[in-house]
Amino acid sequence: MKYHIVTYGCQMNVHESEKIAGILQTAGYKTVSPLEEADIIVFNTCCIRENAENHAFGNIGALKKLKRQKKELIVAVGGCMVQEEGKAGILKEKFPFIDILFGTHNLNELGALIERKRAQKKAVISVPEERAETEDGILPVRTSYPNAWVNITYGCNNFCTYCIVPYVRGRERSRKKEEILAEVRELVKNGYKEITLLGQNVNSYRDGEVSFPTLLDEIASIEGKFRLRFMTSHPKDFSAELVSVMKKHDKICNLLHLPAQSGSDRILQLMNRRYTREKYLSGVALLKREIPDAEITTDLIVGFPTETEAEFEETLSLVKEAGFSSAFTFIYSPRTGTKAAEMEGQIPEEVSKDRIARLIALVNAQTREKSAGYVGKRVEILCEDYDEKKGLYLGRDERGRMGYFESDKNPIGEFVTLEITRANGISLYGKTV
Ligand code: 5AD
Ligand code: SF4
Description:
binds 5'-deoxyadenosine; 6-stranded parallel sheet; 5-stranded mixed barrel; binds iron/sulfur cluster; 23% strand
């Protein structure tokens, strides 16, 4: 039997889909197939912005015909969107052909839900309010060798006023340190060369006395050649202790993803981010002082309610001052149930579109400029794939740049040193040395 998973959203969801694949394989769906040939199709949805939701709605709707032709096909919809208040009902009503609805809080029930669905005709819905346990113990089918994702926390307690995550993912829960260490040791033993620790706010990880820097220190002390990444860091919890652990270990990549969201203090306060522009920049300065070759990437939102042109320009100036090497940029999207959705002064779409275009232009120019600085230098990349179109192998350097190169043998999963001959945006081109 064959399966097909459609994933929306962030790395957290990509890893969750690997766990869903693990559950499907245990349930007897052994191979991945194109959508049309699958016996079960699972949508792993995201609700962080409206366009991610619309995308999922469109794709699920498009299945109606296939489902009519293939009666035995099982359609399952899970992920954050299902966990959103009232959404399970809407999905069921709009798409009566859905067989299984499951929330992020009951991923580990999916196997049982599939069995129930196979045994009965009617749809199976299971969307608990709050999760009692974590997903630990589900063996993922990893799809991103030589990288492996490892959850360290689930959920979020921060309640940034624009964000729906705390409502759909529930309160923050940290995994036990020993469990995480055992998982990473096993991955390294099995040949994974890059471990990415995942959490909505990794800096607030806590297991008894163990904080995030301690956890990171212990993971980086595991023997073997591998790289260690982590995301996402919240600027309010960013600490000197974390910088010193990053500095201590070569294994920890000199790249920090530190979402700033805005460069304006008034907007940051309305967002409930609990740091100022000054505090943010002092964190950046500390990192650059201690690790001069470290780079910083970020997330930025434009068009938050009441944002003025001058406040938007403060975001532009932050991009320059912090020297971001790249950024994920978003137009503010009102999410039902969040505080910001109720705020007066929602910004017209054309204003937000104009702002994001200017922001993207600035970020891209800065990315190009920084990448150009790599020409003539050597970088170590971890080869992860082959690009058929370009006829080149590719991999990332520790700062997240993509390096492309020619090779007679297949170096996927190996560290390769490149001498950079050309740069284009976030991509570097080079020769092996
Ligand atoms: N509108 C726009 N962007 C958002 N993000 C989270 N919620 C929203 C929203 N309602 C962005 C933030 C966050 C990233 C994962 O998504 O920048 O860091
Ligand atoms: Fe959302 Fe803020 Fe939590 Fe990030 S830290 S998941 S933006 S509430």
